[in-house]
Amino acid sequence: MMNTIKPISILNELKEATWPYHERLEKNMNLLSPGFLRTDYLRLIKAFWGYYGPLEARIAGVAELKAWLPDLDRRAKLTLLESDLRALGIDAEALAQLPICREIPDCTHPAAAFGCLYVLEGATLGGQVIIRHLHNALNLDAHNGAAFFTGYGEATGAMWQTFRLQLTAAGLDKTIQISSACETFMTLERWLKQNGCHAKLISDVTHRAVESQCCSPDGALRA
Ligand code: HEM
Fold first, then answer.
1. Helix 38-60 crosses helix 78-87 at what angle (to 10 degrees)?
2. pTM for the whole thing?
3. Model pLDDT for residues 122-179, shown as the tens digit of each residue
4. Candidate from 125, 168, 177, 183 with most ligand 1 atoms within 8 A of CB, to mutate
5. Cα separation of 180 and 174, whole Å?
6. Which sign, positive or negative, has the C-alpha torsion 28, 190, 181, 85?
7. Cβ(125) to ligand 1 under 6 A?
8. Which domains does the chain have, with CATH numbers?
9. How large is the C-alpha radius of gyration of the chain?
10. pLDDT score, position 156
11. CA 170 to CA 14: how far, in whole Å?
12. Sign (positive/negative) of CA torsion 186, 190, 195, 197?
């Protein structure tokens, strides 16, 4: 059967469906506010580590994914978080004690994995804004605790474009991808909140996408 999906359509839909979550998360992470201190930053990085670890491991376990994403290994960011934690004084013993998120999206289906990756890869765009702020406000850079937010650095635009092309070319189920991307934002937000990194839960976001895509039994956030 011919693939009739227009090249840009899924990307537009992903952005439209998830942007309300993004706006909310960006605001409530508080990262760019003048009152955001080094202790807040360390708490945030610890929480990201507890979320990215299990999610990246689950994504890496989706065998079919590499056919569409040959550069998947290069995109893993857990090691960046670990180098940041080490730079900020967290040793191996302390790292082993950090909480790990259990409520991550069920992304064993390749389309769901793409939905999760859309969120994780998109976060590198915000990272380019965040790293400038972290440098100015907290004197952090890729070598002393902010490797995660530095991400791909100057290669960020190219990595994002490649990912967009790969996601589009795969042509996987749109509904699953969108639902999974929404669930990624929701579970991340909940985890940040549980770990004291977030002002509010996202539950009152009212957007067409929430009702049509993300409140399905598959996409719903478990209590
Ligand atoms: C202070 C925190 C953040 C800021 C300032 C920020 C900022 C941005 C900016 C400037 C863009 C580019 C928008 C565009 O070109 O249209 C972007 C895109 C994106 N961000 Fe963030 N971001 C933040 C946090 C996050 C987080 C924590 C995630 C997810 C873990 C995330 C996921 C995304 C995604 C998926 C996109 C791609 C949207 C698209 O074009 O399809 N962001 N962000």
1. 150
2. 0.89
3. 999 999 999 999 999 999 999 999 999 999 999 999 999 999 999 999 999 999 999 9
4. 125
5. 10
6. positive
7. yes
8. 31-214 (1.20.910.10)
9. 17
10. 97
11. 15
12. positive
